[in-house]
Amino acid sequence: MRHDSLALLRQRIYQIVAGYEDANDADRLRHDPMLQIVADQKLGDALGSQPTLSRWENSPSARELVRLNDRLREQFIALCGEQVRQRGEILLDLDSTDDPPRPAAVQFLQRGLWPAYVSPMLVFERHTGCLLAARLRPGNASSHARIVHMLLRLVPRLQSAFPA
Hints:
- By secondary structure, the chain is mostly helical.
- The protein has helices at about 5-15, 25-30, 35-40, 50-55, 60-85, 105-110, 145-160; strands spanning about 90-95, 120-125, 130-135.
- The protein is built from 7 helices and 3 strands, in the order αααααβαββα.
- Strands 1-2-3 form a 3-stranded antiparallel β-sheet.
- A hairpin with a 5-residue loop joins strand 2 and strand 3 (about 130-135).
- It is elongated.
- The chain starts with a helix and ends with a helix.
C-alpha cells in the first residue's frame, strides 16, 4: 500500500501526541482504529509501517532542507513583516538544544554502534517567537558550531526585506 506525505505526516504527528515519540511503535499502531480516525485514514486501511515512516522521515535531501529553511524565513517575512517594521528591530534568538539518547540506546553509544545524539540549532525571532531556521548537528558539536553558516544565509535576506 502507498501512503502520501500528508497521510504519513498526520500519522506521525498523532503518534507523537499520543506519546509514541519514535516510529518503532508504528507497526503495532498502524491497525489501531482510533489512530486511523484521527489521521483521516479509512477504517481498516493500514497506516504506514515503521520502515515506511523511517524512509519518509529520512527522505529529504540536503537541498530540500535548505529550501525548507528558506520557506521558514519567507513565511516570517510575509506573516510578521508589518509587525517587524512597526517595532523597527529583529532580535535573533539562537538556541542549541540537546536530544539525549533514550536509555536503551546508551549501551549502543558506549560501544560506538549508535551515532552520537543530535544537537539541533534553532534560530527564532524573539519578539514574534517565529522559527526562522533549524539545523541538526552531531551531538558532539560545540554550542556555536555552524551558526555562522546559518546566519550568512539568513541575515542578508532579512536585511533585504527590512532595510530600515
